């Protein structure tokens, strides 16, 4: 998600699956519909007219929050869903970096995030053996200075919540409301919707201002 966030901040745009993956994630960690509209509008209108955003993009934000179309409760993608579906192509930024980036790109990213060559190699060993979630968990342990994380990472929202706990943020994060669409019924993009919920308690709503510090996690 950090890659999607940084790309949005630098390019002020994401292609369809990037918007879908990141938008549902933001919803899952507590960003309200009004907050989401403000967040996406603020970025997109740095390169386009506000009227164009309202006509071409605002509907899809409202749709993902169940306020348009079938008014379904769309849930965010789990790690496995991200790894296994919608492989990114040229110009896309969605997907899982540990699964979809080549070694050179991954090595550059790890170095830019402050990992030593030794630590970077320990992450890459999991990548090369196709254990992408374990690679992500190893990255989490290194960047959060943990010997061993007392949990298994299964969802980007879980990563965000655990990161905030370790760094002294919110004690817990929102839980996706029950009743989300079942896989195969379709979602805001016309592709299958993830039917897994994030096992977190609702304690607070994330604001647009909170997103300014997203790079920290």
TrEMBL record:
<feature type="region of interest" description="Disordered">
    <location>
        <begin position="169"/>
        <end position="191"/>
    </location>
</feature>
<keyword id="KW-0411">Iron-sulfur</keyword>
<keyword id="KW-0408">Iron</keyword>
<keyword id="KW-0235">DNA replication</keyword>
<keyword id="KW-0004">4Fe-4S</keyword>
<dbReference type="GO" id="GO:0046872">
    <property type="term" value="F:metal ion binding"/>
</dbReference>
<feature type="domain" description="DNA primase large subunit C-terminal">
    <location>
        <begin position="1"/>
        <end position="160"/>
    </location>
</feature>
<dbReference type="InterPro" id="IPR007238">
    <property type="entry name" value="DNA_primase_lsu_euk/arc"/>
</dbReference>
<dbReference type="InterPro" id="IPR058560">
    <property type="entry name" value="DNA_primase_C"/>
</dbReference>
<dbReference type="GO" id="GO:0005658">
    <property type="term" value="C:alpha DNA polymerase:primase complex"/>
</dbReference>
<dbReference type="Pfam" id="PF04104">
    <property type="entry name" value="DNA_primase_lrg"/>
</dbReference>
<keyword id="KW-0479">Metal-binding</keyword>
<keyword id="KW-0639">Primosome</keyword>
<dbReference type="GO" id="GO:0006270">
    <property type="term" value="P:DNA replication initiation"/>
</dbReference>
<protein>
    <submittedName>
        <fullName>DNA primase large subunit</fullName>
    </submittedName>
</protein>
<dbReference type="GO" id="GO:0006269">
    <property type="term" value="P:DNA replication, synthesis of primer"/>
</dbReference>
<dbReference type="GO" id="GO:0051539">
    <property type="term" value="F:4 iron, 4 sulfur cluster binding"/>
</dbReference>
């Amino acid at each position: 998600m950090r890659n999607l966030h940084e790309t949005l901040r630098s390019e002020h745009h994401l292609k369809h699956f990037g918007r879908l993956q990141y938008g549902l994630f933001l919803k899952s960690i507590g960003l309200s519909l009004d907050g989401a509209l403000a967040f996406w509008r603020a970025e997109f209108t740095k390169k386009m007219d506000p009227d164009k955003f309202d006509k071409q993009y605002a509907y899809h934000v409202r749709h993902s929050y169940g306020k348009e179309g079938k008014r379904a409760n769309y849930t965010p993608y789990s790690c496995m869903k991200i790894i296994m579906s919608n492989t990114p192509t040229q110009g896309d930024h969605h997907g899982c970096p540990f699964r979809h980036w080549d070694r050179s790109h991954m090595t550059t990213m790890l170095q830019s995030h402050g990992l030593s060559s030794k630590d970077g190699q320990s992450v890459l060993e999991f990548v090369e053996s196709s254990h992408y979630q374990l690679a992500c968990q190893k990255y989490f342990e290194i960047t959060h200075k943990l010997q061993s994380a007392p949990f298994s990472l299964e969802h980007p929202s879980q990563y965000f919540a655990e990161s905030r706990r370790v760094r002294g943020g919110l004690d817990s994060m929102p839980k996706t409301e029950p009743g989300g669409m079942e896989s195969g019924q379709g979602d805001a993009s016309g592709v299958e919707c993830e039917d897994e919920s994030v096992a977190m308690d609702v304690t607070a709503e994330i604001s647009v201002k909170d997103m300014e510090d997203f790079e920290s996690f």
